[in-house]
Amino acid sequence: MKIEQWFRHPAGIVVSAVVATMLWGSAMPIIKIGYEDLGIGAADYGAQWLFAGYRFTLAGLLLIIFHYLVTRGRGKTEQRKKLGKGRLSRLALIQTFLQYLLLYVGLSYSTGIQGSIIVGSTSLFQMLSVRFVNSAERLTVMKITGLLLGFLGIAAVGIGKGDLSLSFGWGELLLLGSAFFGGVGNVLAKQESRHEPVLSLTGRQMALGGILLIAVSVPMVGAAPFAINGTHFMYLLYLSVLSAVGFGIWNTIMKYNDVGRVSMYLFLIPVFGVILSSILLGEQMSGWVGISLSLVVSGILIVNRSVTVKTVVSRAKADAQQS
């Protein structure tokens, strides 16, 4: 089965999206473990940005090397196909630099529960922003219903934790801004993937975004404010690999599918985050997580059902016109 066939097939979409969101969900507990071992405090923004910068620079380099190795025997045409510097910089600025610049600061001012709920809004911004890129993408009643179920699922995680606060301060605003840039960046990556192979595009924009994060943080804390041993490097390597694999898979899913069909899967990120935090950090997990997952999965099924119905209707119209 070719790559395009896999990422267009329903089973391929489900498996790929679950892998990507599970990897992203595992990032938070690993980051917390790494911060604790490195002695990075909640208000050490420069050290947090530097750690993120190293993570995404390494992730980008890994993708660039992998893409080169994969395409080495396919001729020079595919390897030379590159996005212009201006458009690449725009993508790196939005999808990596601004998204994670705001995310790391926002998490230090907000609770984990509120952060999880707001991270789920990335799917909403993704579905809304695609309207400015592709007018054919529409927010149907079934898509809106799926979104509402997804948000209810994330809220259920908060209820299960017993701390579903409705306060909205600087931390929440920054996290909302991060979700906005994440959604817009995903749609922009889908658009730009028409001009450059996904792995090359993702790798170059992540490396550039990581370098920008390093450039911002070095004047604040220096290039090496913490000593990294073998264990710390393994944390950094894992976070880099999960970023490379997660974004590589997700951007490929986005390239071959309607945004409305796949956006719902982003609601799985905080669900996996809670489950994996319970396993890795020993945080208590209640039965509400099962309810949350059920609501998110229901939303995914509804959205995919709406896409299936739309496809059937479109084919019926096309057959009628031909006859």
TrEMBL record:
Membrane topology: Multi-pass membrane protein
Bilayer-spanning residue ranges: 12-31, 51-70, 91-107, 113-133, 140-160, 166-188, 208-227, 233-250, 262-281, 287-307
Matches recorded under Pfam families: EamA
Record has Transmembrane helix as a keyword: yes
Subcellular location as annotated: Cell membrane
Top-level taxon in the UniProt lineage: Bacteria
EamA domain location: 14-157, 170-304
SUPFAM superfamilies: Multidrug resistance efflux transporter EmrE (SSF103481)
Keywords: Cell membrane, Membrane, Transmembrane, Transmembrane helix
Signal peptide start and end residues: none
Database matches in InterPro entries: AA-Vitamin_Transporters, EamA_dom, EmrE-like
PANTHER family cross-referenced by the UniProt entry: INNER MEMBRANE TRANSPORTER (PTHR32322), S-ADENOSYLMETHIONINE_S-ADENOSYLHOMOCYSTEINE TRANSPORTER (PTHR32322:SF18)
Family (UniProt): Belongs to the EamA transporter family.
Protein name according to UniProt: DMT family transporter
Organism field: Paenibacillus urinalis
